[in-house]
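Researcher: Structure prediction, please.
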Amino acid sequence: MDDALDELATRVGAALKQNNLWLTTAESCTGGWVGAAVTAISGSSQWYDRGFITYTNLAKQEMLGVSEATLADHGAVSEATVREMALGALAHSRADIALAISGIAGPTGGTPDKPVGTVCFAWADKNGKLYSEKYIFPGDRRDVREQAVTLALEGVLAMLNL
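Model: Predicted structure follows.
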C-alpha cells in the first residue's frame, strides 16, 4: 500500500475512533480496495464494521437493496445508484457512516455520457446526511481506482467535518 494512502486511512481511523463511530463500505469498481486500505491499519477493528463488494447489478440489488428501477433508469455508474448503495450499506450493517463507489475504471466500458474514468461516490450517515458526487479521473485502470479510493476516504473526513 502506498504511504499517502496509509496516512489517509490512519487519519480516517483516528477520526472515527475519536468520535466513537463505525464505517462500512460499498464498493464496485474499486473491488474492496477501500476495505483493504482501512484494514491495513492496526486497530481498524475498532472502527471498521464491514465491506460490501457489489460488482454486478444483481449484487447491488441483493446485498444493498438498490432498486432495479434505479439501475434501469440511471445505470450502475450514477449518483442515484451510489446513494442507494450507501443507504443500503448502513441498513445492512451496524455502522454509523457509509461510503459507496461505482465507476468505469477502463480501459473498456466507457460511453460518450460516461467515459472511462467516471466514478460516482456517496457518503451517508445514520443522522440522515447523504452526499454524492461524480468525478472523471485521468489515467489507466489502476490510476482511476487509486484516485477513487483516496477521494472516498477524503469524503469520510469531510463527513466528519475534519
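Model: The chain has a mean pLDDT of 97.
Researcher: Thanks, that helps.
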